[in-house]
Amino acid sequence: MIDCDVHNSWTSAEVLLDYLDPAFREYLDRGEIPGPRGAFPHAHRPWLHPEGFMRYDAVPPSGVTPGADLPFLAEQLLDRYSIDYAVLTGDESIEVSTLANPYYAQALASAYNDWMIENWLSADPRLRGSLIVAPQNPQLAAAEIRRLGDHPDIVQVLVSSGSQRPYGDPFFHPIWEACSEYDLPFAAHLGGQGGLNSTPIACGPTTFFWETHALLCETGMAHLGSTIAHGVFEKWPNARLILIECGVAWVPPVLWRLDEDFRALRKETPWLRRLPSEYARDHIRLTTQPLEVPNSPQALWPALADIGAQDMLMFASDYPHWDFDDPNFIRLPEDWREAVLDGNARSVYRLPAQEVVDELAG
User: Fold this and answer.
1) How is the chain split into domains, by residue range?
2) What whole-number distance in Å separates Cα of residue 80 and Cα of residue 149?
3) To which H or E segment does residue 331 belong?
4) What Gene3D superfamilies does the entry give (predicted)?
């Protein structure tokens, strides 16, 4: 099993000070981060979670932040579920996308990447890292990819889904070019609502957290359509977009709509040679958390099968967040389980084949 969304954290953002460019240390030292001093919280967002963002039982015995204690994380997640690999997606760190100063934002992202490599990837062979970049300045983000993109345990480039514009826009093409050079997927994780990205819902700000959380998938729709329409996958044939925690049930009808409009208006984008759904099946991947549950649970699968989602879905637990999905209870068609729980992620992240893992473990 491969878990594609595990949120590692820190006891305090001050752990980044030793890794931060000296020009920006004073910013962090005096608390210039999104929210209260000591951590990037979720409290700077306009929507407050009524119960808290973390599982109550994920607080380690030491009392530190959930996700900050690797031995406890390993016991509660990796060991309990026999997970071969966990892809670390950070937590507060992707909130750099909400900062107005792109230079400071990328400095924080770079400091996090160095801290994560030294303190997490070196500590457990089951861990793989996401290279976090600040997309506000694509040139700086591309430079960060070229700085660390060849690290053997880095498996993707990660941004927040909350963005100033859709990620297929040519503004972001320097990031796609650098990802292509290192054959790294470009992943967008749900979030970033705050700061520069204060209205990630199409009609403007919503009122309640549950309402907002349910509708944030609209950012995933925009990025999916944009990357296809702007020809990202024609320009870089090895490019892959991974949408993390953006949901999956909306994908079939959106692709159906894109296919229909493209058939009628294809002269608008003459660089596209295939249907949007065909690009999606080959180049876009989706994590299972949250996996929507219809009133009739089996109603979801025919629509997903129609777009070939058995090749697109990858398991994610979202540990240690409040909406964690226990892999023992995830509902999947039996003939999809091996691909969704293991094979699809193993392929897109270029992880060793299962027999190699077993041999190393032995």
Assistant:
1) 2-361
2) 31
3) none
4) Metal-dependent hydrolases
Residue at token pair 């909350």:
162
Assigned CATH class of 2-361: alpha beta
For residue 3, the cross-strand partners are 86
In which region does residue 52 sit, left (phi positive, over 0), alpha (psi from -120 to 50) or beta (all else)?
A: left
Composition of the chain by helix, strand, coil, percent to 5: 45, 10, 45
Residue 293 and residue 241 in contact, taking contact as beta carbons nearer than 8 Å? no
Say if CB 13 and CB 323 are below 8 A apart.
Answer: no
Spatial CA neighbour of 157 closest among 94, 220, 111, 104: 94
Q: How far apart are CA 12 and CA 321, in angstroms?
A: 18
Q: Any idea which residue has 């079939």 for tokens? A: 252
Q: Which two tokens stand for residue 2?
A: 């491969």
User: Which residue bears the tokens 């989706």?
Assistant: 286
Does the global pTM surpass 0.90?
yes
